[in-house]
Amino acid sequence: MLKIGVLGTGHLGKIHVKCIQLAVETYDLVGFYDPNPDMAKTVAAQFNIKAFESMEALIEAADVVDIVTPTITHFALAVQVIQAGKHVFIEKPLTHTIEEAEELIRLSKAHGVQVQVGHVERFNPAFLALEDMELNPMFIEAHRLAAFNPRGTDVSVVLDLMIHDLDIVLSMVDAVPTKVSANGVAVVSETPDIANARIEFANGCVANLTASRISMKQMRKVRFFQRDAYISLDFLDKNAQVVRLYDQDSLNLPENANLLEWHTPQGVKMLHMDMPPIESVNAIKMELESFADSIVNQTTPKVSIEDGYQALKLAYEIIKEIDRKPWEQELTRK
What we know:
By secondary structure, this protein is of the alpha/beta class. The chain has helices at residues 11-22, 37-47, 55-61, 71-83, 98-111, 125-128, 157-172, 283-297, 305-333, and strands spanning 2-7, 27-33, 64-67, 87-91, 115-118, 139-145, 177-185, 194-201, 206-212, 219-226, 229-234, 239-247, 259-264, 267-274.
């Protein structure tokens, strides 16, 4: 059993504390540190856990440190944890800058510690339902819409929301991005509140992603299109739909399945619609347990520090494209 401590007990930090307390066979929660004394007192009483008086004391007492603080603080905190030789779980995005992420990668290798990034959608039941499927998407469309919430508006919607789908896309496409086009608008905050990005990959795959934090309704959907198959995931309602086309005489036709004939220029195909079984899981608890498993077995975390870095790097390419647009428009007017 690994001793774990939590840094930061804001909205998400409290959820992490609660989930760790549920993972009784995996972690021993030694306590937490929060620089706000009133918050620390409240959380200690609410969860009946120890509030450490300093971050250094918490790090010393733990084998693993869970960083659930504002993004701008991730780097400085993670450096202290890693240099102390402790494993670290960091909420997404990994760091505030690409350079900070690169330095954390170097430090984690130098000190031989494991780092996992909190891209929790990898553990969403809808996404987990695809684990055993052969996937090779060539077009991806994602919509992540949320109502306005002042929490998180210190960063662009690309880092706040879209980065979830960037990680999902990068985990599924076995090729590097070659071209990024993007646009975004700051509506109610100082950074873009709605953004769209088109990402082209070396293998020909194209991803079209939209994220908004000023929507009247919530939506978290991703659709994958590939040869003879269409897959739709709803991360919010936690369900998946898979539609496949088979040759009429295919040996891979699902048994005891309702099949529809589909007449195509290439002849009659058999259409099969499937709703994969969804296992109800606590995604945050599962990602933390997965991290413990990678530490114990010395395997690469399911969402490694390199994964977090690649998602962050792509996010900043999108932000760069968005920031460039006003200059292009001004030059056009001149």
